[in-house]
Amino acid sequence: AGEVRFDNVRFGYDPDREILKGVSFTVPAGRTLAIVGPSGAGKSTIARLLFRFYDVTGGRILIDGQDVRAVTQASLRGAIGIVPQDMVLFNDTVGYNIAYGRQGADMAAIEVAARDASVHDFITGLPLGYDTRVGERGLKLSGGEKQRVAIARTLLKDPPVLVLDEATSALDSRTEAEIQDVLGRIARRRTTLVVAHRLSTVVDADEIIVLDGGMVAERGRHADLVRAG
Ligand code: ADP
Ligand code: ADP
Where does the ABC transporter domain start and stop, copy by copy (predicted)? Predict the structure, then answer.
């Protein structure tokens, strides 16, 4: 489960300015699609539409063949996990932040959920105890640590569809490479949409689409797009 399909999707935040002018793609269950393109092209908008922060003004978005508008908010939240670029953490422990959103979550529940090896890597890869306090607005953690907590939180929901919205682009290149490596392993086991700022960070994607001017300007695998310049 977890096929995501955009069928001629059109959208504008304002009626007189269309951001997406007919975008189509299919991500088969378990595959990875990367969305690249210049800033302002509408990449994050695609993620927001999938999650129904906004609704399309034309076309359809389907998950496993079902229009997202026909799905309850609760099951949509269960089906899709989003890791944004800069997730806000609570002024509480790492454990609390990771468990956030899970009913009655305690350390035992976290460890059960972490049986998924990829999630386990993420949690144990933190150079922090579950009981480390994150501190006011998460400021005591480095960018990489915060992002690991944020990703672990989303992975614990075990969503069939994972959306990484420039999840590592704010990090230094060594930390980005480290986290990309783990994310790459995770992505291999579920449907993943990666919004990226650089083609070089999405080498392994099954398909890459380049958004420009509200449309899919190019699509293909990394090698094809690099060859095309
Ligand atoms: P990208 O992720 O490719 O940088 P976005 O999807 O964030 O682009 O934004 C696409 C366009 O929509 C940009 O021109 C941006 O200014 C505009 N936009 C984004 N969010 C809003 C909003 N909430 N209201 C109005 N316009 C917005
Ligand atoms: P839950 O408690 O079920 O995780 P939330 O409403 O807190 O539900 O968030 C659902 C998902 O959407 C989470 O993965 C969260 O990181 C992400 N999310 C929530 N709000 C935003 C936002 N404003 N921008 C981007 N992602 C968000």
Answer: 4-229
